[in-house]
Amino acid sequence: MGVELIIGNELGTKAYLPAVEEGIEWSTERKGAPGKLTFKVLGDDLLDFSEGSPVRLKENGDEIFFGFVFSRQQQAGRLVSVTAYDQLRYLKNKDTIVYEDKTADQLIQMIAEDYMLKTGTLENTGYVIASRVEENTSLFEMIQNALDVTLENTGNLYVLYDDFGKITLKNMSSMAVGNAGAYLMLDEETGENYTYTSSIDENTFNKIKLTYDNEETGFREVYIAQDSGNINRWGVLQHFDTLSKGENGAAKADALLKLYNIKTRSLKLTKALGDNRVRAGSFVVVSLDLGDIKVQNFMLVESCKHTYREREHWMDLTLRGGAFIG
Fold it and tell me: What is the pLDDT of residues 193-214, one digit of tens each?
């Protein structure tokens, strides 16, 4: 069956199976960006599509991408370069929203209804945000802020993505590629090249200090959580923040320490064997002998680019392990 790319006309009344130049690319980022599809088609008198036309990509029956044309560029030889984005592109819209007593998933559902976006599975994030004012902010930022607040108070990281035309939110724990005993594994044989980095320079903190100015008592409350062992090892790396009304200072400090008190590890793999199940936000097993360290654990996919050519499919990945900060 191979790769099947279909473009509709602007009204959605016709569908075309165009002649596609080799090299379709599908890219995803874990946060703050829509899924992106780029390709080149041979223009002719019958092919009638424009900005806003729907685009669908499948490979061997796998539903990969559903979105809309956002730009076209005419080239010599009647080639047309096309860029399409999934529904998350509309989260770049800016607005001002005030909300109270909503979980992050409820906020996403509200935004989707306001902007006529289709939703799929939106997992209950559990943590109720008492109140928040988002002024002149992109919808992406509003949602990310809600997910960050949830992460900081519960330690649970959620992934927002478009699942073939439906906005989806899932806990990171349910984003592993494969099943127990048969998880997808990336090793030296599956990737052409890799770059591995470990660091305590960014997003690593071994002391958390939170304060809250209690207007009722007139006193400033201070909450501290720290790891003396890692302070002796790395020196004091402090994260400071203020609390909002209704937040549990002690619980939040402990949750932040658990999140930040670890080295961050990043891995870039190029030309790994392609697997349509892998996207930004996925969890994959990595098994690499890097000399000073052997990596054999789950890592989070921060960004993923799939390239489809005739009888070839590979992916370039940026992965992260250690501190999974939102």
Answer: 788 888 899 889 999 999 999 9
The pLDDT confidence band at residue 192, using thresholds 50, 70 and 90, is: low
Nearest Cα residue to 191 out of 278, 63, 264, 61? 278
Of the pLDDT bands very low, low, confident and very high (cuts 50, 70, 90), residue 324 is very low
CA atoms within 13 A on the CB side of 204: 17
Selected residue with higher pLDDT from 317 and 76: 317
User: What residue spans of 78-186 are helical by DSSP H?
Assistant: 104-114, 139-154
d(CA 287, CA 273) in angstroms, rounded, equals: 15
262 token code pair: 């670890």
State yes or no: pLDDT of 313 exceeds 90.
yes
8 Å CB contact between 11 and 54: no
First-residue to last-residue Cα distance in the chain: 38
260, HSE (Cβ side, Cα atoms, 13 Å): 26
**Residue 125, Cβ neighbours under 10 Å: how many?**
24
Residue 101 zone, left/alpha/beta (φ > 0; ψ -120 to 50; rest):
left
Q: What is the pTM of this model?
A: 0.84
8 Å CB contact between 320 and 302 = yes
Give residue-wise pLDDT tens across range 127-163: 999 999 999 999 999 999 999 999 988 889 999 999 9
SS3 120: strand
C-alpha–C-alpha distance, residues 271 and 307, integer Å: 9
Backbone angles phi, psi at 129, to 5 degrees: -85, 120
Query: 247: buried, middle or exposed (CB in 10 Å: 19+, 13-18, 0-12)?
Result: middle
How far is Cα 103 from Cα 98, in angstroms, rounded to an integer? 13
- The SS3 assignment for 52 reads coil
